[in-house]
Specification:
With about 375 residues, this protein is mostly beta strands. The protein contains four helices and 29 strands. Helices cover about 5% and strands about 45% of the residues. The strands form seven sheets. Strands 2-3-4-5-9 form a five-stranded mixed beta sheet.
Length: about 375
């Protein structure tokens, strides 16, 4: 049964870390990490049964500390990374690590679903992604579509490229890039580009966005004042290699062509508070999700800057060389961009939104009070895109 009604799940803990499980393409599965100062922190494995419109959950313990960021291996559905805070010598330190889910977590909890919550199993630590010189990890990025052997961690003003060996039990830094400049420079977020053979990285620090070539670890572009305030998140268009979306504390979402960074190609001003998360749909890049501290999640149809601006596929070169070589679209206006839906099921800051890796029409959002909401792209729009 396909129903557009949202499905809501409450975690009973504050939470801000959410990811779709990328290596799992059959089941609709999301991972959520909690932020509790009083209790052991947890990873909630959320399986959505779309035939019956219900959520099945499993809980694993993450005793290392409160989770700020979570990432799923693209190759092994049992492996994940977290960035978490721990207190050592009365100082709070941000750490990063690679973990494995216990092999029997799926079988153990199905018989009596309440079991996993009352008596959860613990994640197995595979390796740490910090050393004495680099700590304070803000996020860990897996190589897109990779074999699960390479990750990047952003820690203070360093981007570290790690090789994971011995089935992820050992990590070595293969190269680093450093943010140079005045003052206390810190990366806030980043995104590993799926294009150019995965050789490029985009990072955010303060109000700037920078592109890096991972082969040389040198900067390739810089958008100095991309936003009026802190940049919170970035995402690459999956189908157009030069297109990048960003969002920030100026309440705006901006779309960039990194070949010409003077001006954004488009700006959205639909949110009334900080925008924490921006996500392109993996298959239909005109669909963009944004999540904000205004407690709202917005789904936009950015068709004019998508790979199908006239309702069919157009490649990047045709678009950049103007309309001359495509007679059919000559004189045609690109389709109009619009806000498809504003979702108001949250009552607290929405820190994260993610598309499912198994179902391109389904997405999850997470607010700080631990409320996870699963929604679908409205059916009318889905059929308009498909037909």
């Amino acid at each position: 049964m396909e129903d557009d009604a949202p499905v809501i799940y409450g975690l009973e803990f504050q939470a801000r870390a959410l990811t779709a499980q990328t290596a799992e393409t059959d089941a609709i599965r999301f991972l959520v990490g909690t932020q509790s100062l009083k209790f052991d922190n947890q990873i909630h494995i959320i399986d959505f049964d779309d035939e019956n419109n219900i959520i099945n959950k499993n809980v694993l313990l993450h005793q290392a500390g409160e989770i700020w960021h979570i990432g799923a291996s693209p190759a092994d559905k049992a492996v994940l990374t977290t960035c978490y805070n721990k207190t050592s010598d009365s100082r709070v330190v941000s750490c990063a690590a690679v973990w494995r889910m216990p092999s029997d977590w799926e079988t153990g909890s199905r018989e009596s679903p309440d079991d996993s919550a009352h008596n959860p199993q613990t994640l197995e630590l595979l390796c740490h992604l910090d050393d004495s010189t680099h700590s304070n990890a803000a996020c860990v990025l897996w190589e897109p579509m990779g074999d699960g052997k390479r990750v990047i961690s952003l820690a203070d003003n360093h981007a570290l490229l790690w090789d994971l060996e011995e089935s992820s039990t050992q990590a070595t830094v293969s190269s680093t890039a450093t943010l140079e400049g005045k003052g206390q420079l810190r990366f806030t977020s980043g995104k590993w580009s799926p294009h150019h053979n995965c050789s490029q990285l985009a990072t955010a620090n303060d109000t700037a966005i920078r592109g890096w070539d991972l082969r040389t670890m040198r900067q390739i572009y810089c958008i100095e004042n991309a936003h009026g305030q802190l940049v919170r998140d970035l995402d690459f268009n999956p189908n157009r290699q030069y297109y990048l979306a960003s969002c920030g504390d100026d309440c705006k979402v901006k779309f960039w062509d990194v070949r010409n960074v003077q001006e954004p190609i488009k700006t959205l001003e639909e949110h009334s508070h900080w925008v924490w998360s921006v996500r392109y749909n993996h298959s239909h890049d005109q669909l963009v999700l944004t999540a904000s501290s205004d407690s709202r999640l917005i789904l936009s149809n950015m068709v004019s800057i998508s790979s199908e601006p006239f309702g069919h596929l157009v490649d990047d070169d045709e678009l950049s060389e103007g309309e001359d070589n495509n007679q059919e679209d000559k004189g045609k206006e690109p389709l109009k961009d619009s806000v498809v839906s504003t979702y108001e099921e949250h009552e607290d800051s929405v820190y994260a939104a993610e598309w499912s890796s198994a179902d391109p029409w389904l997405f999850a959002s997470l607010s700080y009070d631990g409320r996870l909401v699963i929604n679908r792209v409205p059916r009318a729009l889905k059929y308009r895109i498909l037909l």
